[in-house]
Amino acid sequence: YQRAIAADPTNATTLGAYALFLHTVRADMDQADQMYQRAIDAAPTNANSLTNYATFLCKFDRDSEMQTLLGQMRGRNAEFKAAAGIAEGNCMQRRGQSGTAENAYKQALAANPQAEGALLPLAQISLQKGDYASALRYLRVVHTYVGYSPESVKLGIEAARKSGDTRMEEELVRVMRGNYKSTPEAKALGI
Prior knowledge:
With 191 residues, the chain is an all-alpha fold. Helices cover 81% and strands 0% of the residues.
């Protein structure tokens, strides 16, 4: 990373990736904070850098700074509004505040109805609440516009089983067996 940054010290993608590395791998929080700031200064319209920095701020309970950043993101276009809702939802979900997380994810969907980062957590929350129809509705959007993933298929199978929708369950079991049979999600379902 250091050579890439030396070659182009204003490349927001490289700065953001290095900040994430420092934060998650090296646990050098001071240096990570500086790199996130440099990435944002280099490209204030890079949604990934802003989202990763919001996640960083959340992890260290820097809520005032996080809310300021999320407010700035919400003041921009739909991409940023969706990213802000997802970042806040993820933060609140990690803190066990699923009601607040659900509201944040719904704000993300209001900005982008196909935001996978909001749809999957909303499906999980709906499943936990026993609202299987909503879980399946969110997952149908994911499967139609984003595609399948082991996690989305697993959630769909669980929701279909609990709602008694055997046709949906059979369809998703076929997808799991055909595409994801060696995954932890398939093993967790006994597939």
